[in-house]
Design brief:
With 111 residues, the protein is of the alpha/beta class. It has a single domain, classed as Nucleotidyltransferase, domain 5. It contains four helices and five strands. Strands 3-2-1-4-5 form a five-stranded mixed sheet. A hairpin with a 2-residue loop joins strand 1 and strand 2. The longest helix is centred in the N-terminal third of the chain and has 15 residues. The chain is globular, with a radius of gyration of 16 Å. The termini are far apart.
């Protein structure tokens, strides 16, 4: 199966690396009983998922292979904040989730 998917995955990566806008996120994944990270890189045309043992910026560097999109969309995680793009848009869905959590969480300062 890996051989059959190699060409389509390569083409998806090439389209991603020519994109003006790239959105990215990462989440935990279990692979053979070990913690890994599933990364997603996407725009309005393609979506690429990769699983790597690290949550570090090296994954972004590897996937983007030197491509510098005009706009990067992501959460506030440090590896994402060190993106290769010219401009950065913080993911509004992540911001809404974080604001909702802050609103719903009891706080000593809120009476």
């Amino acid at each position: 199966m890996q051989g059959q998917l190699e060409t389509p995955v390569t083409k998806i990566g090439e389209r991603l690396r020519s994109a003006r806008l790239v959105g990215s996120d990462e989440t935990g994944a279990r692979v053979n009983g070990k913690n890994q990270w599933e990364w997603v890189f996407q725009n309005d045309q393609v979506c690429l998922h990769v699983i790597r043992p690290t949550r570090g910026k090296t994954v972004i560097d590897s996937v983007m292979a030197g491509h510098q999109p005009q706009i990067w969309v992501s959460d506030l995680f440090s590896a994402q904040a060190a993106h290769p793009a010219q401009d950065w848009q913080v993911c509004l869905a992540h911001q809404l989730r974080d604001c909702q959590y802050a609103w719903e969480t009891p706080c000593a300062l809120r009476m």
